[in-house]
Amino acid sequence: MRVIKLSEAEGQVRMEFAGCNMKCPYCVHIHQPFTEVSLETALEFASSSSMKTVYLGGAEPTLQKELLPLLEGLHAAGKQVLLKSNGMKPDVIEQALPFIHGLVLEIKAPLDDVEGIMELTGMSGERTVKYIDLLEKSLDIAKQKWLRVWVRVIPEYVNKETIRRILQTVEGADEMMLYQFMSKTDFDRPFLGHEEPTPSWEELEELGKIALEKVQNVILLGEKGRKVLEK
Protein backbone atom coordinates (compact mmCIF):
# COMPACT_ATOMS: atom_id res chain seq x y z
CA MET A 1 0.00 0.00 0.00
CA ARG A 2 1.16 3.53 -0.75
CA VAL A 3 1.28 5.33 2.58
CA ILE A 4 2.12 8.96 3.25
CA LYS A 5 2.10 8.54 7.01
CA LEU A 6 1.12 6.22 9.86
CA SER A 7 0.65 8.06 13.14
CA GLU A 8 -1.22 8.44 16.40
CA ALA A 9 -2.86 11.85 16.65
CA GLU A 10 -6.09 13.45 17.84
CA GLY A 11 -6.85 10.38 19.95
CA GLN A 12 -6.82 7.97 17.03
CA VAL A 13 -4.58 5.94 14.76
CA ARG A 14 -4.29 7.77 11.45
CA MET A 15 -3.36 6.19 8.14
CA GLU A 16 -2.79 8.67 5.32
CA PHE A 17 -2.69 7.08 1.86
CA ALA A 18 -1.17 8.39 -1.37
CA GLY A 19 -2.80 8.45 -4.77
CA CYS A 20 -5.97 10.17 -5.94
CA ASN A 21 -8.34 10.19 -8.91
CA MET A 22 -8.66 13.99 -8.74
CA LYS A 23 -6.21 16.84 -9.29
CA CYS A 24 -7.46 19.46 -6.84
CA PRO A 25 -5.16 22.50 -7.21
CA TYR A 26 -5.13 23.28 -3.47
CA CYS A 27 -4.40 19.73 -2.27
CA VAL A 28 -1.09 18.97 -0.56
CA HIS A 29 -1.53 15.20 -0.42
CA ILE A 30 -1.01 14.57 -4.13
CA HIS A 31 2.43 16.19 -3.83
CA GLN A 32 3.58 14.41 -0.67
CA PRO A 33 6.15 11.58 -0.78
CA PHE A 34 5.02 8.09 0.14
CA THR A 35 6.45 4.70 1.00
CA GLU A 36 5.25 1.20 0.22
CA VAL A 37 3.87 -0.39 3.38
CA SER A 38 2.71 -3.99 3.59
CA LEU A 39 -0.75 -4.94 4.80
CA GLU A 40 0.84 -6.77 7.72
CA THR A 41 2.85 -3.71 8.79
CA ALA A 42 -0.21 -1.45 8.69
CA LEU A 43 -2.28 -3.92 10.70
CA GLU A 44 0.48 -4.39 13.24
CA PHE A 45 0.83 -0.63 13.68
CA ALA A 46 -2.89 -0.21 14.37
CA SER A 47 -3.26 -3.34 16.49
CA SER A 48 -0.38 -2.39 18.78
CA SER A 49 -2.00 0.97 19.56
CA SER A 50 -4.21 1.43 22.60
CA MET A 51 -6.37 3.80 20.55
CA LYS A 52 -9.65 2.26 19.45
CA THR A 53 -10.45 4.49 16.47
CA VAL A 54 -8.56 4.17 13.19
CA TYR A 55 -8.99 6.94 10.63
CA LEU A 56 -8.15 6.15 7.00
CA GLY A 57 -7.59 9.30 4.98
CA GLY A 58 -4.90 11.06 3.02
CA ALA A 59 -5.45 11.49 -0.65
CA GLU A 60 -7.93 8.72 -1.57
CA PRO A 61 -7.93 5.43 0.42
CA THR A 62 -10.42 3.65 -1.85
CA LEU A 63 -7.74 3.38 -4.56
CA GLN A 64 -5.62 1.04 -2.44
CA LYS A 65 -5.89 -2.52 -3.73
CA GLU A 66 -5.55 -3.95 -0.22
CA LEU A 67 -8.07 -1.62 1.40
CA LEU A 68 -10.72 -4.28 1.99
CA PRO A 69 -8.30 -6.80 3.57
CA LEU A 70 -7.03 -3.93 5.74
CA LEU A 71 -10.57 -3.06 6.84
CA GLU A 72 -11.33 -6.71 7.59
CA GLY A 73 -8.17 -6.98 9.68
CA LEU A 74 -8.88 -3.79 11.61
CA HIS A 75 -12.45 -4.92 12.26
CA ALA A 76 -11.23 -8.30 13.49
CA ALA A 77 -8.83 -6.50 15.84
CA GLY A 78 -11.76 -4.67 17.43
CA LYS A 79 -10.95 -1.28 15.95
CA GLN A 80 -13.55 1.37 15.14
CA VAL A 81 -12.78 2.46 11.60
CA LEU A 82 -13.62 5.77 9.94
CA LEU A 83 -13.07 5.84 6.18
CA LYS A 84 -12.67 9.17 4.39
CA SER A 85 -13.37 9.35 0.66
CA ASN A 86 -14.20 11.68 -2.19
CA GLY A 87 -17.02 9.32 -3.12
CA MET A 88 -15.83 8.31 -6.58
CA LYS A 89 -15.90 4.59 -5.80
CA PRO A 90 -19.33 3.73 -4.39
CA ASP A 91 -18.72 0.04 -5.12
CA VAL A 92 -15.73 0.01 -2.76
CA ILE A 93 -17.64 1.98 -0.13
CA GLU A 94 -20.48 -0.54 -0.25
CA GLN A 95 -18.06 -3.44 0.18
CA ALA A 96 -16.47 -1.63 3.13
CA LEU A 97 -19.71 -1.19 5.10
CA PRO A 98 -19.54 -4.41 7.17
CA PHE A 99 -16.10 -3.50 8.52
CA ILE A 100 -16.37 0.20 9.35
CA HIS A 101 -18.06 2.37 11.95
CA GLY A 102 -18.65 5.25 9.58
CA LEU A 103 -17.62 7.37 6.65
CA VAL A 104 -16.33 10.87 6.04
CA LEU A 105 -17.33 12.06 2.57
CA GLU A 106 -16.02 15.30 1.15
CA ILE A 107 -18.30 17.66 -0.74
CA LYS A 108 -16.53 20.47 -2.56
CA ALA A 109 -19.46 22.59 -3.77
CA PRO A 110 -23.17 22.22 -4.56
CA LEU A 111 -23.59 19.23 -6.83
CA ASP A 112 -25.42 21.35 -9.40
CA ASP A 113 -22.33 23.55 -9.84
CA VAL A 114 -20.56 21.51 -12.50
CA GLU A 115 -18.26 24.36 -13.53
CA GLY A 116 -17.23 25.05 -9.95
CA ILE A 117 -16.51 21.39 -9.27
CA MET A 118 -14.43 21.24 -12.45
CA GLU A 119 -12.29 24.10 -11.14
CA LEU A 120 -11.98 22.52 -7.69
CA THR A 121 -11.07 19.03 -8.91
CA GLY A 122 -9.06 19.69 -12.06
CA MET A 123 -11.32 17.31 -13.99
CA SER A 124 -13.00 17.63 -17.38
CA GLY A 125 -16.69 18.41 -17.70
CA GLU A 126 -17.52 14.84 -18.71
CA ARG A 127 -15.56 13.37 -15.83
CA THR A 128 -17.09 15.86 -13.39
CA VAL A 129 -20.64 14.90 -14.38
CA LYS A 130 -19.73 11.24 -13.84
CA TYR A 131 -18.15 12.08 -10.47
CA ILE A 132 -21.31 13.86 -9.28
CA ASP A 133 -23.38 10.78 -10.11
CA LEU A 134 -20.92 8.52 -8.27
CA LEU A 135 -20.85 10.83 -5.25
CA GLU A 136 -24.64 10.84 -5.01
CA LYS A 137 -24.57 7.02 -4.99
CA SER A 138 -21.85 7.03 -2.33
CA LEU A 139 -23.86 9.41 -0.15
CA ASP A 140 -26.89 7.12 -0.32
CA ILE A 141 -24.75 4.13 0.63
CA ALA A 142 -22.92 5.99 3.39
CA LYS A 143 -26.15 7.01 5.11
CA GLN A 144 -26.54 3.35 6.09
CA LYS A 145 -23.72 4.03 8.57
CA TRP A 146 -22.62 7.00 10.64
CA LEU A 147 -21.79 9.77 8.16
CA ARG A 148 -19.81 12.98 8.47
CA VAL A 149 -19.89 15.37 5.51
CA TRP A 150 -16.58 17.25 5.24
CA VAL A 151 -16.57 20.65 3.53
CA ARG A 152 -13.48 22.73 2.77
CA VAL A 153 -14.90 26.25 2.88
CA ILE A 154 -13.45 28.19 -0.04
CA PRO A 155 -15.69 31.30 -0.14
CA GLU A 156 -16.03 31.45 -3.92
CA TYR A 157 -17.70 28.03 -3.83
CA VAL A 158 -19.08 27.59 -0.30
CA ASN A 159 -20.95 30.54 1.19
CA LYS A 160 -24.33 31.44 2.70
CA GLU A 161 -26.12 30.86 -0.59
CA THR A 162 -24.40 27.71 -1.78
CA ILE A 163 -24.33 25.91 1.56
CA ARG A 164 -28.11 25.67 1.50
CA ARG A 165 -27.85 23.81 -1.81
CA ILE A 166 -25.22 21.51 -0.35
CA LEU A 167 -27.49 20.80 2.61
CA GLN A 168 -30.27 19.62 0.30
CA THR A 169 -27.93 16.85 -0.84
CA VAL A 170 -26.64 15.75 2.56
CA GLU A 171 -29.82 15.78 4.63
CA GLY A 172 -29.74 12.65 6.75
CA ALA A 173 -26.02 12.88 7.50
CA ASP A 174 -25.08 12.65 11.18
CA GLU A 175 -22.50 15.41 11.19
CA MET A 176 -20.97 18.14 9.07
CA MET A 177 -17.45 19.49 9.45
CA LEU A 178 -16.73 22.93 8.03
CA TYR A 179 -13.02 23.50 7.55
CA GLN A 180 -11.67 27.06 7.23
CA PHE A 181 -9.52 27.10 4.09
CA MET A 182 -5.80 27.88 4.58
CA SER A 183 -6.05 27.58 8.37
CA LYS A 184 -3.53 24.71 8.31
CA THR A 185 -0.45 25.52 6.29
CA ASP A 186 0.48 21.83 6.03
CA PHE A 187 -2.97 20.95 4.72
CA ASP A 188 -3.67 23.45 1.93
CA ARG A 189 -1.88 25.06 -0.99
CA PRO A 190 -2.69 28.70 -1.86
CA PHE A 191 -5.59 28.94 -4.31
CA LEU A 192 -7.36 31.87 -6.00
CA GLY A 193 -5.04 34.26 -4.19
CA HIS A 194 -5.98 32.94 -0.74
CA GLU A 195 -2.86 32.63 1.42
CA GLU A 196 -4.42 33.33 4.83
CA PRO A 197 -7.31 31.62 6.64
CA THR A 198 -10.58 32.32 4.85
CA PRO A 199 -13.45 32.99 5.36
CA SER A 200 -13.29 34.75 8.73
CA TRP A 201 -14.06 32.65 11.81
CA GLU A 202 -17.24 34.67 12.32
CA GLU A 203 -18.39 33.87 8.78
CA LEU A 204 -17.60 30.20 9.39
CA GLU A 205 -19.80 30.30 12.49
CA GLU A 206 -22.64 31.75 10.43
CA LEU A 207 -22.33 28.90 7.95
CA GLY A 208 -22.36 26.47 10.85
CA LYS A 209 -25.62 27.89 12.15
CA ILE A 210 -27.20 27.46 8.72
CA ALA A 211 -25.94 23.87 8.55
CA LEU A 212 -27.63 23.09 11.88
CA GLU A 213 -30.97 23.53 10.14
CA LYS A 214 -30.42 20.19 8.37
CA VAL A 215 -27.64 18.39 10.27
CA GLN A 216 -27.74 17.41 13.95
CA ASN A 217 -24.11 18.21 14.74
CA VAL A 218 -21.73 20.68 13.11
CA ILE A 219 -18.00 20.98 13.77
CA LEU A 220 -16.03 24.08 12.88
CA LEU A 221 -12.30 23.61 12.31
CA GLY A 222 -9.88 26.45 11.70
CA GLU A 223 -7.59 29.12 13.07
CA LYS A 224 -9.42 29.19 16.42
CA GLY A 225 -9.28 25.44 16.84
CA ARG A 226 -12.30 23.18 16.94
CA LYS A 227 -15.83 24.16 17.92
CA VAL A 228 -18.86 21.91 18.13
CA LEU A 229 -22.31 23.31 17.37
CA GLU A 230 -25.38 21.33 18.39
CA LYS A 231 -29.11 21.88 18.06
Keywords:
iron-sulfur, alpha/beta, S-adenosyl-L-methionine, lyase, TIM Barrel, 10 strands, 231 residues, ten-stranded mixed beta sheet, 2 domains
Write the topology of this structure.
Blueprint: E1 2-9, E2 12-17, E3 35-36, H1 39-47, E4 53-58, H2 67-76, E5 80-85, H3 90-96, E6 102-106, H4 114-121, H5 125-142, E7 146-153, H6 162-170, E8 175-180, H7 201-211, E9 217-222, E10 225-230
Parallel strand pairs: 2-4, 4-5, 5-6, 6-7, 7-8, 8-9
Antiparallel strand pairs: 1-2, 1-3, 9-10
Q: Low-confidence segments, ≥5 residues, pLDDT <50?
A: none
- Mean pLDDT across every amino acid position: 97
CATH architecture of the largest domain: Alpha-Beta Barrel
Shape type: globular
Strand arrangement within the widest β-sheet reads 3-1-2-4-5-6-7-8-9-10
CATH superfamily of the largest domain: Aldolase class I
Mind summarizing the main beta sheet? 10 strands, mixed
Topology order in helix (H) and strand (E) letters: EEEHEHEHEHHEHEHEE
What is the percent of helical residues?
A: 25-40%
What class would the helix/strand composition place it in? alpha/beta
